[in-house]
Design a protein that fits this description.
461 residues; disordered N terminus; alpha+beta; globular; 16 helices
């Protein structure tokens, strides 16, 4: 259990990595002396070059992972096979030959492999790896199970890490880990029960949206100026309260890097006349909640009540008030008085926060639970599929340029109970807990032509 707890510590929203000697940023320039560079540049360097916690797997896990796949021999083009098996992506920065999300790091007696925040917070689209794009292809359940087995463990995890490929139980990780900490972040045993659930099914928002948001997380529960909330992953059993204090300045810089990120531009042709008509419709029907765009942008930072938005309430209701109280009374909640509503760093809200839509073309699937694969489905609830699968590739052939999002294959029948879990997680079944694709019916009254115009405009954001 201790070993498994150690692995859990990195899967809440985070910012941590390890760098080899002489590693350089994606720009190709070697790091400068800290006082000669901006906080944003320091943040990038900290994000990609600092190990904030130890590794927790041996170096054997990547080269031997295939032995857990039911294969009789190592697949050809093994690097690609690993990426496709777990939904990982090539690193656009020096990373010791490992994909984004995996990281060489020190262990107690040697060097091993751990993970960093890019496991969930970096993805790829149109053949390009992008730091800050939520990883919509990740099978974190398979990754942790397989790697544990390679290292001689059972592979049994303390709770479900993911029910559907491309989503995680991120909220559950935070609840689980905080249960092992006293308010001053010293360790406590046994773990305190704080209302852990594993059916929250969360899609990972893009980091570049933080630039506009005053509150973060799907329900808008935490002030976006909070630095300590980025450090929750450090609740590793080997870290001490002094470690949190030591690294807080680095996370201030990391936060500056995160809010400096800009979304990628739509890489395919756009019908400008059609988009212009869509902009008018967007301002009439969508801007009240999602804001306006361009040089003089606006963003209202609105939380839409559950009974109005109508989307799946599981994530909203699944984080218990017991956890909110524990978080608020801990070191995480003592960051700076006056930032928080009613003095609480983790507050209850009435529903889900309507996010900014910058770079929305790249962030499929949609809704907080990733239940809708295209923007056309977002704007037309009648077009949403009950059950579907997709390739989980991110190249141009897998991208739906008309409906904007991922190409999917509708499945009429439920999957066989004999289907291996790794394959079953590729199927999105909206009848399962936490996975409803209902709600957000605001585009239903538009005509097909009007929806197409709005979608064309959304490509420009």
């Amino acid at each position: 259990m201790t070993r498994l707890f150690a692995t859990l510590a990195l899967l809440v929203p985070c910012a941590s990595t390890f760098a080899a000697e002489n590693e350089v940023p994606a720009s190709g320039k070697k790091p400068q002396v800290a006082d000669q560079i901006s906080p944003t540049e320091r943040g990038y360097q900290a994000l990609t070059q600092t190990a904030f916690i130890p590794a927790f797997w041996t170096q054997n896990v990547v080269p031997n992972a295939w032995k857990q796949w039911g294969a009789t021999e190592k697949p050809t083009n093994y690097t690609t096979a690993v990426l496709e098996r777990y939904g990982l992506h090539s690193a656009p920065y020096a990373n010791d030959g490992l994909p984004m999300g995996l990281r060489k790091a020190s262990r107690v007696l040697n060097t091993g492999v751990g993970i960093d925040c890019m496991l969930c917070h970096a993805g790829s689209i149109d053949g390009k790896s992008i730091v800050g794009l939520g990883n919509s292809t990740l099978d974190v359940q398979a990754l942790f199970e397989d790697f544990a087995k390679v290292d001689g463990l059972s592979g049994k995890l303390p709770f479900t890490f993911s029910n559907v490929r491309g989503t995680t139980e991120a909220g559950g990780f935070g609840v689980y880990l905080l249960g092992f900490r006293n308010p001053d972040l010293t360790l406590r045993t046994p773990r305190k029960e704080l209302g852990l659930r594993d059916d929250l099914c969360e899609d990972v928002p893009a980091w570049w949206l933080m630039m506009k948001k005053k509150t973060i997380y799907h329900a808008g529960t935490t002030d976006s100026r909070s630095v300590r909330t980025l450090m929750q992953f450090m609740m590793h059993p080997l870290t001490t309260p002094k470690d949190f204090e030591k690294h807080e300045p680095a996370f201030r810089d990391i936060q500056q890097y995160l809010i400096s990120l800009e979304p990628p531009k739509y890489p395919y042709p756009i019908d400008e006349a059609k988009a212009a008509k869509g902009k008018v419709l967007f301002h009439q029907n969508c801007a009240t909640c999602h804001g306006t765009y361009g040089e003089k942008w606006t963003y209202p930072n609105k939380v839409i009540p559950l009974d109005e938005i109508g989307t799946d309430p599981t994530r909203h209701k699944g984080i218990d008030v017991t956890y909110g109280k524990e978080y608020s009374e801990s070191w995480f909640g003592k960051e700076k008085n006056g930032w928080f509503v009613n003095g609480l760093p983790l507050r209850a809200t009435a529903g889900y926060q309507a996010p900014p839509l910058d770079g929305i073309w790249a962030t499929a699937p949609y809704f907080h639970n990733g239940s809708v694969p295209t923007l056309d489905g977002v704007l037309n609830s009648k077009a949403r599929l009950k059950r579907y699968t997709r390739s989980f590739k991110t190249n141009e052939a897998s991208y739906d340029k008309v409906n904007v999002g991922w190409k999917v294959t509708e499945l009429r029948d439920p999957p066989s109970e004999k289907l291996p879990p790794h394959e079953a997680r590729k199927i999105y079944d909206t009848s399962k807990p936490g996975r409803s694709n209902a709600g957000h019916t605001y585009g239903d009254d538009l005509t097909d032509e009007q929806r197409a115009q709005v979608i064309e405009y959304l490509k420009t954001l």
